[in-house]
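tool_call: predict_structure(chain=1)
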Amino acid sequence: MTKRSPFRYFKTSPEIIRLAVMMYIRFPLSLRNVEDLLHERGVDICHETVRFWWHRFGPMFAAEIRKRRVERMQSSRARWHLDEMFVRVNGERHYLRRAVDHEGEVLESFVTNRRDKNAALKFLKKSLKRHGRADEFVTDRLRSYGAALGEMGIRDRQQTGRWMNNGAENSHLPFRRRERAMLRFRQMRSLQKFASVHASVLNLFNSERSLSSRQNFKLNRAAALAEWRGLCAA
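tool_result:
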């Protein structure tokens, strides 16, 4: 049976939709910034159209990226870095928890409204179910992680120490830039949705240019763009 294109109900070309979604998720741009950039390229759309496209196709693209990368990298994730960041939703403090592997890949993004053991336990179970076993968990000195790992019987795998968790803390920076461009969030559900999609797209295009030659960086960037274009080919 032939796979039906997800763009079949739209008169706009799939290339423009994929470009608009990528620009909004990958770069710290507002909806109106994307509208202006597309207008400069001869594409006349409203910023509300960009919003609709992101809500309609962003999670679908992210799910396919995550599926491919989980299958490809599951066996190599020996060390996880766990950390959380404060995010305000309508003036209320929430916590965006992240699990990052030893190579800087964002494994999981999970929003909670508490910082206790139960929230950490739920986050860990969800991450382990999707990504498999980890040999080490690097955390800060927040006691909820130790309590959650102890309840799961893997407290001996926890590692804490000064500067050991910089990998997870640095992974928050791209999201902070996006948060400022979006003027924060209105709903916890919207925060969870965008955090998951943003992490998947960031993983796809993260080439660690400081650790490779210019030639290898260009090849990796071209491969990432080719994969993005082929996610939901029309």
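agent: The first strand starts at residue 79 and ends at 89. Proceeding to next step.
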